[in-house]
Amino acid sequence: MEKRLTCSVWIMVLAGVLMISCGTNGREKRTTAGQKPFDGVGIVAHRGYWNCEEGGFARNSVAALKAAQQAGFWGSEFDVNMTADSVLIVFHDSSINGKRIESNPFSAFENFRLENGEPIPLLEQFLAHAQRSEKTKLVFEMKQHSTPAFEDEAVRRSVALLKTYGLLDPERVMFISFSLHVCREFARLCPGITVQYLGANLWPAEVLDNGLGGIDLNMGTYMETSRFHDEAREKGMSINVWTVNNPEDMQKAINTGIDQLTTDEPMKAREVLGKREVRK
């Protein structure tokens, strides 16, 4: 009799474990990023607030970063590449004067000048200036590189520099990239900091399954279907749209309910948004 009772008890315990396990799986499928939508829209100055005298009309320049900070825009986006000798530089394109950045040492680019006469900023120089103002969040885009190993090194070095300058903080920086591998690495090394995927080859739920908390899409792609917005909102993910320069397009994107608007014309966006602009 006691043996039968013991068997019955074990059967009930196992059944309970299975039910709990099934319930957990169900909850995992409903996982959300848990990010609260903005009450308004944050303006992200694309490659800094370069399109003005203060920014020297020079994209990805220190002057453009300073101008974005002085204007009080929510964010300032910038691009990072790594040279063959592991120097991180703030520059958009993968090549400079026909020389591929990741295949050449930094010395190959030392004499290059931006439109305002600045040399290409080293990431550490850029962060030293970023450190001086808390008004504007850094929207850090890591460019795609040729191999996962190269990207791992670029991410690792970037995180180390952000720590050095006291900027590895969800209030000071967020990450974006077209490389899913880069996004995963930032999310792994920097829990709690927003990472948005720039690619349009995954739906928001798939982006979330990769451990990322947001999407950052081209305006045309984003407006093609409401699924990007609706699924991201259902999953508690942040939404950024780029690069929107026409006021009518700005209004269309804003009306859908986005969190950030990336633009080369941040002052025009400020006019369109009015009181709906979110400032950091």
Task: Chart the SSEs and their pairings.
Elements: H1 2-29, E1 41-45, H2 62-71, E2 75-82, E3 88-90, E4 95-96, E5 99-100, H3 123-130, E6 137-142, H4 148-164, E7 173-177, H5 180-189, E8 195-197, H6 204-209, E9 214-218, H7 219-224, H8 227-234, E10 238-242, H9 247-256, E11 260-263, H10 266-273, E12 277-278
Parallel strand pairs: 1-2, 1-11, 1-12, 2-6, 6-7, 7-8, 8-9, 9-10, 10-11
Antiparallel strand pairs: 2-3, 4-5
Helix pairs in contact: 2-3, 4-5, 9-10
Describe this protein with a few key phrases:
TIM Barrel; 10 helices; alpha/beta; 280 residues; eight-stranded parallel barrel; two-stranded antiparallel sheet; 18% strand
What does this structure look like?
The structure is a single chain. This protein is α/β, with parallel strands linked by helices and 280 residues long. The chain has one domain (42-278): TIM Barrel. It has 10 helices and 12 strands. It has helices spanning 2-29, 62-71, 123-130, 148-164, 180-189, 204-209, 219-224, 227-234, 247-256, 266-273; strands at 41-45, 75-82, 88-90, 95-96, 99-100, 137-142, 173-177, 195-197, 214-218, 238-242, 260-263, 277-278. It has an 8-stranded parallel barrel, surrounded by 5 helices. Helix 4 (148-164) packs parallel to helix 5 (180-189). The chain is globular.
